Amino acid sequence: MIVTPKIFARLVAIAILGVLLQLSFFSRVELFHTSPDILPPLVVSLGLLGGSLAGAVSGFSIGLLVDCLLVAPLGGSSLVLLSAGYLAGLFRERFEIHSSLVPPLLCMGLTLLAELGFALVQVMLGLDAPVSSLVVRDMLLKSIYAFFLGWPIYLALRRLLRPALVEEPKVRRRKQPTVLGA
Amino acid sequence: MYRKQVRRRRAVLTLLIIGSFVLLTITYGQSSGGLQRGVSTVFSPLQTVADRALKPARDLVGWFDKTFDARGENSRLKSELAKAREQSVAGQEALQENRQLRKLVALDRGPALAASAYEPVTGRVIARSPTVWQSTVTIDMGKDDGVRVDDPVVSGDGLVGRIASVEGGSSQAALITDHASAVSAKVVPGGVQGVTRPDVGNPEELILDFIQSSKDIHVGQAVVTAGWRAQGLASLFPPGLPIGEVISASIVEQEASQQVRLRPYADLANLDMVQVLTGGSPR
Known about the structure:
The complex is a heterodimer of chains A (about 180) and B (about 280).
Chain A: H1 5-24, H2 39-50, H3 52-70, H4 76-94, H5 102-124, H6 134-160
Chain B: H1 2-27, H2 34-105, E1 119-128, E2 136-139, E3 152-154, E4 159-166, E5 171-175, E6 183-188, E7 192-198, E8 206-212, E9 222-225, E10 229-230, E11 233-234, E12 242-251, E13 257-264, E14 273-278
Antiparallel strand pairs in B: 1-2, 1-14, 2-5, 3-4, 3-14, 4-5, 6-7, 6-9, 7-8, 8-13, 9-12, 10-11, 12-13
């Protein structure tokens, strides 16, 4: 990703908009008793588009902003989201994205990993309460929502950040030779 | 060139991970620092605008979710309504009797009415934490409105939580389903006392602990705040605030206690307007 001042401003705006949307909308609606979490898919999409460094930095920044706004111990969300962003970026650097299903599937998998990460951080911080089996259901549902939300988020970000993306030119399919123009 | 890039990438990643751990270590268990206060103050107006702008969309999603739920709840509510009618009649009689008895023993200004010392301030919920691990909401009222840390927060249905941190124009409330929450409570009628704590990951239920197995508790009984006061110490919550309804009571094997599960009266998932009871509890 080529980060010009204009692109940087767009990235900041995307991060702020994403966090505000999450805290004011997605965290406050429930579908089947679970609120969707758009922050892991957002970070994963940024990682997929910008690479591991962009994914890690955006994950760290978005996590820090969330922790600041929720007055939670700083660093917990950053640690989890930077890992998700980094892994997404690493995937993009190591493999080619052949299918359009790859971004939403990656969003789903890494959201599940991020939710496990959030749980680990809470245990690390001394969570002193019984954990019900519904947590597992919550994590699974969140990752399924991430699959459906990840696709539009990825497409929207690709459109917004298009000038900064280093994309390999598409290999044009050669026209098959025909006999007598048939 | 490529190696240099890889090295730089690894260095930044290591720096960010170390930074996260350092921040966690520094801020864990501390009150909100200057950075958090500053960011919160800057974003508070933005959150208020976002909250209002997104309310119709939230309501729409909520309508769909509630429609799914309503189908299953319909039959349960019908049977509950029949029970409630019976209880209502009995309750009216008890109320009448209670008024007469109060007059007799002059208990009108007794400890049960200590809640009147609180001054309710109404505010709007403008944000909510995204994980099931932290049950906190942000309210658009802060120090400037007289809100202080540990003030009780209620909704029209019952107890919601307490204020966990305050800034100038906004504050964070930890809900009763937050993992760090504990509220001294009693079952009514009967007055059996215990402590409500959350069932982490299940924000729709609470657990009432420390109840002797010999005490008789029935499904449908109400649980309210106990509001104790002893040796200069007092509960953060005034007595008599409704918390929830008993949905199951089972005796824990090999233990002299029973586990009572409650459903909170307040709809914690769809909080919109709340009241902070300010200036009441002595600290």
